[in-house]
Amino acid sequence: MRVLLILLIALLIISPAATATGRGDIVHGGWTLESDKDGIKIYTRPVRGSKLKQIRAVISVHASMETVVRALTDYPNYHKWMYNVTESYVVDHPADSVHYVYRFEDAPWPVQNRYHVDRMIVDIREKSTTVEFKSMPNYMDKSGEAIEVQRYEGSWNVSEIANNECQIEYILDENPGGYVPDWLVNYMAIDAPFKTLSNLRERLEILQRS
Questions:
Q1: Which fold has domain 27-209?
Q2: 163-198: per-residue pLDDT in tens?
Q3: How many CB atoms are located within 10 Å of the residue 146 CB?
Q4: 3-state secondary structure of 62
Q5: Can you tell me the distance from the alpha carbon of 201 to that of 81, in angstroms, rounded to the nearest whole number?
Q6: At a CB cut-off of 8 Å and minimum separation 6, what does 203 contact?
């Protein structure tokens, strides 16, 4: 009996360390945790036939569902928080929940700038909201010397977890088109979504006070 008690105590002590998710661990769905800092977790997983990885970023914010939705659907102001986006505007609005949004991205040297038009579909529920986006190649004329992104799709998934507190999940599968060096691929997979969510959190704090 004494031996059994010692084993149970040892198991309780070891379990938290054994079950904790650390960098490089693979979690449900095949996602690998790449970064966990400042309240933002970044996961990646391989995409068949592509050198780019699918991205999943998660953050909890002190903001109401209404405020989060307000930020995510304020398309002309994406430049205020979305990393590298310097211009955005609504191209078409065929339905209340559907918008076609143009985005211009100022890419770091030596990569050419990128642009894309995305179909945005908003689904608002009582305790959750989803904003799905998918690029629509050739929807409008070429934007100067910038390269049109060939694939840019994913979603913003918002869940209310408490009063004035939400969890935001950002999923992105992207093919930027043209040449992208390996160092930038790795950079985009971790740093870009981190900075986007960090900026979004700051934006929500401003909107929450207004």
A1: Alpha-D-Glucose-1,6-Bisphosphate; Chain A, domain 4 (3.30.530)
A2: 999 999 999 998 888 887 766 777 777 899 999 999
A3: 17
A4: coil
A5: 9
A6: 71, 80, 81
